[in-house]
Each structure stands twice: as structure tokens, then as C-alpha cells.
Amino acid sequence: MLSRGRDKAINSNQINFDWVCANAESLPFEDSEFDYCTIAFGIRNVSDRKKALNEAHRVLKPHGKFICLEFAPMHYQNEIFTKLYDLYSFKVIPKIGSIIAKDRSSYEYLVKSIREFPTQADFKMEIKERDNFQVTKSLEAFKRGQLTGVGPGEGSVKTSLPDCHTDFVFSVLAEEFGLITCLATLMLFGIISARLLYVAYRENELFNLLVILGISIQFITQFIINIGVTLSIFPTTGITLPLLSYGGSSLLSSSIALGIMLSFSRNQAIALKFRERVMLVD
């Protein structure tokens, strides 16, 4: 098939191609190398469809397009059409194959593979999911970063990992600045979290305490889940990393929440000074 495609290209005077025979589940190309990736009547025949989809996504550039042409099973609500379709699929098609191509088994496999292939809607979901592609890329970023990172702007994960500037910004940080910077970031978040809990500990008013605890739990939980997702501890959730993830709504909500906490902390300090003055007067 590859030779026939090459011959057709030569006959059409299209010679600017590199012809490579490779496994669809392990393509011999670099990440983010192609603008388009196409497959026609082949994805149904690979041994591991999810691996093939992951590879296709890996070699595509950001915003590249994956184009797939494939048969899909038909589902009729009318029972008569269903029986006619089954009759045509399992009886007529193999018979035609045995008469014309002298190969009944191949046409029986054709029908079976089409029936076992997911519907268009399900296959669309498979393409979107790509079998934890994001988490795999995230872990690779941590491995490449090691202790000191590859350098600012030198990381490659941001060119192939979707949502790297929001959900997986910590992976970019790990690759470009290394484990030491990641630990320092975790320490800073730990200090902020401890401070939030300390503000809650000092509060005496019930309403204020509930507000402070709500903000503290939301901030700490969001931070833990985001880091856990990048390390494959939790499933991908779409939760951003407070103060670091790109996006106006995320940064704005985090800033407002911390601003409220600062206000409570300031009021506590003012109330404490007032009580000290009252005690001195007494």
C-alpha cells in the first residue's frame, strides 16, 4: 500500500514527501512535528487504539488537526432495518467477497471489525480523552526538569500539553525550573495555608470563622488537588493552581479570597490592640 501511494504521488508530480513505514502505536517522529495527522480505514485495525490516538496527538503541533476516515456501526431503531442490515453484513458481504475476491474470511473480518468499533460519539470521546495523555506528559516534564530544570522558556511540555498554562502550570514550572523551585513553591503555599488556618484559629465571631474556614479550605483543597493531578495522584479535574495558573477568573477569585482573609487578619490585629489599650487603661 505504501508503494502504491508513492507511485501515485510520483505520477501526480508530488515528490516532496518522505515515505516512512512505522507502527501507528509508536511513531518515529518528534513531539509537535506535524500540522495534520490523517488515518483512513486504519484505526479500526490497530491492536491498541488508545496508544495510536496518543501518538497522533503527540506528533501534532499545538492546534494541529487529526483527521480520521473510518467505518462506524449503524444502529437502527426500526427492527426491520436492523435485521436487513445484519443480513447484508453477515451474509451478503462475505458472499460477495468469496465470489469476487476469493477471500471470504477477510470480508467476515471487515464486518466484525466494523461492528466492534465504537459509535461516532464514543470514538469522539476516545479522541478527546487520549488515555491520560495530559498526565503522562506532566510526569515526563517532572523527569526532564530534575533538580534545576532545563531553563526558563526551554521546556517542551508547554508545546504539546493541552491546558499547560492553567491546569498543568506546575508541570511547566517543574520542567523549566526544576525540583528545587517546585519545593520552594510548595513551601510558600504551605506558609500561606498555615497563615489562613492561624487567622481562623484567632477568630471569635462565628460568622467570621465560617467565612474564614470556607476560604481556607477552598484555597488549600484547590492547591492540593491541582498538584495531585500533575503528579497523577488524582484524576484530571480542570482545577487551576491558585495565583499561578493563567486566566482572569482564577486569578481574580484567588485575589479576592486572599483579600478578604487579609481584611479579617487586619481587623483581628486592630481588635487585639484595642483590647490591650483597654487593659492598660483599667
Automatic annotation (TrEMBL):
InterPro entries: FtsW/RodA, SAM-dependent_MTases_sf, UbiE/COQ5_MeTrFase. Keywords: Cell shape, Glycosyltransferase, Membrane, Peptidoglycan synthesis, Transferase, Transmembrane, Transmembrane helix. The chain crosses the membrane at residues 177-198, 210-234, 246-265. It catalyses: [GlcNAc-(1->4)-Mur2Ac(oyl-L-Ala-gamma-D-Glu-L-Lys-D-Ala-D-Ala)](n)-di-trans,octa-cis-undecaprenyl diphosphate + beta-D-GlcNAc-(1->4)-Mur2Ac(oyl-L-Ala-gamma-D-Glu-L-Lys-D-Ala-D-Ala)-di-trans,octa-cis-undecaprenyl diphosphate = [GlcNAc-(1->4)-Mur2Ac(oyl-L-Ala-gamma-D-Glu-L-Lys-D-Ala-D-Ala)](n+1)-di-trans,octa-cis-undecaprenyl diphosphate + di-trans,octa-cis-undecaprenyl diphosphate + H(+). It is a multi-pass membrane protein. It is found in: Membrane. Its EC number is 2.4.99.28. GO terms for biological process: cell division; regulation of cell shape. GO terms for cellular component: cell division site; plasma membrane. This is peptidoglycan glycosyltransferase. It comes from Trichonephila clavata. The lineage of its organism: Eukaryota, Metazoa, Ecdysozoa, Arthropoda, Chelicerata. The gene is ubiE.
